[in-house]
């Protein structure tokens, strides 16, 4: 029997959600590679429109920590919601996902912090048997050690850890796709090498 290709890391746009976690302006001075994370988030927001994939945006305690940075346009997100839980996978998000994507199979996750909110979201999603794709160039922490260890843990517990370009071309699948030109434009600049698994 053929193995389920989605379990091997393939992606199908109509069974996928993009999750943007807590990229709030307050964190800019504290998070390593914050600017790079914002660039990747913008690339994924643009790709979400091209592929018609819903985008869900969490903000950690925005009353105290402020909203998502204005450097990312989230005006067309399917949901922007507040949370105090570290995990993004709140009852509010679960309900919206069920309504928007009843056959949800995969989530592409990016934002901050890798070892706290991203990791706790990963645990909740994997426990629901949802495939999780982590953007290595789209997550970070205040400490590079925390970020590097979190990326290692994500791999060891069953996430697919790749770059934004890797994920976009998995969604594209074919050079003859009508989205090819738009996605190629988003991927003109490769991921910076200094933003590797351990840096």
Describe this protein with a few key phrases.
alpha/beta, single chain, 7 helices, 6 strands
Question: What do these coordinates show?
Answer:
This protein has 199 residues and is an alpha/beta fold. 38% of the residues lie in helices and 19% in strands. The protein is built from seven helices and six strands; from the N terminus they run βαβαβαβαβαβαα. The protein has helices at 34-51, 62-65, 91-100, 114-127, 144-156, 164-172, 180-186; strands at 16-21, 55-60, 79-83, 106-112, 131-140, 160-162. Strands 3-2-1-4-5-6 form a six-stranded parallel sheet, sandwiched between helices.
User: For the CA atoms, what is the radius of gyration?
Assistant: 16 Å
Q: What characterizes the major β-sheet?
A: 6 strands, parallel
Based on helices, strands and strand pairing, what is the structural class?
A: alpha/beta
Strand order in the sheet with the most strands: 3-2-1-4-5-6
Averaged pLDDT: 93
Question: Could you tell me how far the N terminus lies from the C terminus, measured between alpha carbons in angstroms?
Answer: 40 Å
Taken as a percent bin, the fraction of beta residues is 15-25%
Unreliable residue runs: none
- Taken from the alpha-carbon principal axes, the silhouette is globular
């Amino acid at each position: 029997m053929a193995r389920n290709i989605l379990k091997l890391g393939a992606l199908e746009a109509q069974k996928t959600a993009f999750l943007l976690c807590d990229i709030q302006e307050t964190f800019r001075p504290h998070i390593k590679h914050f600017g790079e994370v914002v660039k990747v988030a913008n690339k994924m927001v643009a790709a979400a429109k091209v592929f018609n994939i819903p985008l869900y945006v969490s903000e950690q305690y925005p009353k105290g920590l402020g909203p998502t940075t204005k450097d990312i346009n989230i005006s067309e997100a399917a949901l922007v919601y507040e949370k105090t839980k570290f995990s993004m996978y709140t009852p509010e998000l679960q309900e919206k996902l069920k309504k928007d994507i009843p056959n949800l199979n995969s989530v592409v996750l990016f934002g901050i912090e890798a070892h706290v909110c991203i990791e706790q979201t990963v645990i909740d999603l994997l426990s629901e048997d949802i495939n999780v794709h982590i953007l290595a160039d789209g997550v970070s922490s205040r400490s590079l050690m925390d970020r590097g260890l979190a990326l290692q843990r994500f791999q060891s517990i069953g996430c697919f850890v790749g770059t934004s370009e890797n994920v976009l071309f998995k969604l594209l699948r074919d050079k003859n796709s009508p989205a090819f030109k738009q996605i190629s434009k988003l991927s003109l600049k490769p991921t910076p090498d200094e933003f590797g698994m351990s840096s």
